[in-house]
Structure formats: C-alpha cells, structure tokens
Amino acid sequence: MKSQNAIVFGGASGLGEASARKLAAAGHNVTVADLNEEKGSIVAQETGGTFVQADVTDEDSVKAAVASAAEGGGGLRICVNCAGVGAAGRIVQKDGAAPMAGYDWAIGINLMGTINVLRLAAEVMVGNEPGDDGQRGVCINTASIAAYDGQIGQTAYAAGKAGVVGLTLPAARDLARHGVRVMTIAPGLFDTPLLALLPEPARKALGDNVPFPQRLGQPDEFGDLAVHIVENVMLNGEVIRLDGALRMAPK
Ligand SMILES: NC(=O)c1ccc[n+]([C@@H]2O[C@H](COP(=O)([O-])OP(=O)(O)OC[C@H]3O[C@@H](n4cnc5c(N)ncnc54)[C@H](O)[C@@H]3O)[C@@H](O)[C@H]2O)c1
Description:
The protein has 251 residues and is of the alpha/beta class. Helices cover 44% and strands 17% of the residues. The chain has helices at residues 14-25, 37-46, 59-70, 100-125, 146-149, 155-175, 193-196, 200-208, 219-231; strands spanning 5-9, 29-34, 50-53, 76-81, 92-93, 96-97, 137-142, 180-187, 239-242. The protein has a 7-stranded parallel β-sheet with strand order 3-2-1-4-7-8-9, sandwiched between helices. Strands 5-6 form a two-stranded antiparallel ribbon. Helix 2 links the parallel strand 2 (29-34) and strand 3. It is globular, with a radius of gyration of 18 Å. The termini are far apart. The structure holds nicotinamide-adenine-dinucleotide (NAD). Nicotinamide-adenine-dinucleotide is lined by residues 9-10, 12-16, 34-36, 54-57, 82-85, 109, 113, 142, 144, 187, 189-190, 192-195.
C-alpha cells in the first residue's frame, strides 16, 4: 500500500505504541500524539515519525495534532485512537454514591475524547483528494469487551466504551458520503503497561480465562489488526472483538 500520513493518539504506550510501530513498518508516516512526551518522543524517534503532545479531551490540542499530521503532502489519511484510561468503583460505596467526578473523568477521556478525535480528524480528512478507490481516510477507535460484558465496578468504564461501540455505525454512515471509514476494535485482555503492573501470577490467571489462545493478547496483534483495517476498504461501520473468545465473568 502507498505510504500515507497517519496519527496515533495514545501512541506512547501499549496498544497505541504497537499500532504506531506497525503502521510505520507498513511504510506510513506516523505522528505519535499523547500526553506522555517522554515515552511518545521515543516511539516517534524509533519509528522515524514525529511526536506531538496532545490531550484527546482538548479541542485545540487535537486540532493542532491533526493539522501537524496532515502536513507534507497527501493529507491525513489514517487516524487510530488508543488514548484511554481504566476506571473502577462500585455504584454505591462505603461512604455513599460513587462520585460523579469519577464518571466525568473516565467518560470524558474514553468517550468524549474519542468523539473529539473522530470529529477533528474527519474534518481534515474530508478535505483530502479521494484515492483511486474513492477513499479519503479511515478512523479507528478503541473500545473494550467491557462494552458488552462489563464487570462489577466497571460502570464508568463500560458506559464510555459502549458509547464508542454505539457511535461506530452512525459515524460510518455519516461520513460515507465523504469516503471516510470508521471502525472500532474492542480488545479483550492485552499485555500492556496497564496490566504489567500486576504480579505475574495474577497476569497468568487472567490469561488462563481466555478460551483460545489461552493467554493475554500481545499489543502487536492489535497493531496488526489496525493495519489490516487500514488496508481493507470493505471494513466499515463495524466493531471487531479481538479477544480469543473471552467473555468476562461478573468479577
Ligand atoms: N490493555 C488491555 O487489556 C485493554 C483492554 C481493553 C481495552 N483497552 C483500551 O485500549 C486503549 C489503550 O490501552 P493500553 O492498555 O494500551 O493503555 P496504556 O496505558 O498502555 O496506554 C494508553 C495511552 O493513552 C495515553 N492517554 C491517556 N489519557 C490521554 C489523554 N487524555 N490524551 C492523550 N493521551 C492520553 C496515555 O498517556 C498512554 O500513553 C485504552 O482505550 C484502553 O481502555 C485496553
């Protein structure tokens, strides 16, 4: 496939880092956008790309990031958003109802941040010249299998991710007239810095729950799927579970 300009939000770590590395290996020019400048700059340097500091919840910083990624001919054609946070807490806690601030924070980053990135990346993409296939760009969001089988304590996380699942089809329908595709990947359990904090026996126990392959997913497997979505123009408006057939138990 021809080299294209790509941006990966959350590209400093985990699934986003793997996506940035895989897109670069496939020949694309990658802009790594993340809050974490230290790690993001290293990924950008190692992939021959550019780092921009960006907060997915902030309009100005996302606008500046997508504008920077669009520079250098061809426009911005690929946007992968992996920026996200985990959140846990029961609805009613020892001292009363779970604070709204926790919901605002998690849903603000995981859902509103996704919407912010999608709308601002798409705005730039609709101005691109269409390719031979009529395509002007592709946006890939990251949900979670918690959107479907959220566990105890995951209402904020699951609600945000279910929002990402829910917007995928209407966003694809909405942008179809411009030749911009929208896809979402819903990962199961992946071995990223998020899970690396757990002791090895706890990580093994999580992996043992996956029907097949009986292990945690590797970030590269997520990156490979992101590259495939970019290359397969027929994939549009769909959420792909990438989970080894895992269905999460209540806890
Ligand atoms: N690892 C898993 O098992 C798993 C499973 C399901 C879903 N996910 C989702 O995949 C995505 C990536 O997770 P990961 O495991 O790679 O996590 P990670 O913590 O390794 O990486 C997340 C990255 O997002 C960045 N980030 C956080 N908030 C940001 C913001 N406001 N603006 C810009 N960047 C921001 C962080 O700095 C970090 O570099 C998240 O949306 C997560 O919910 C992960």
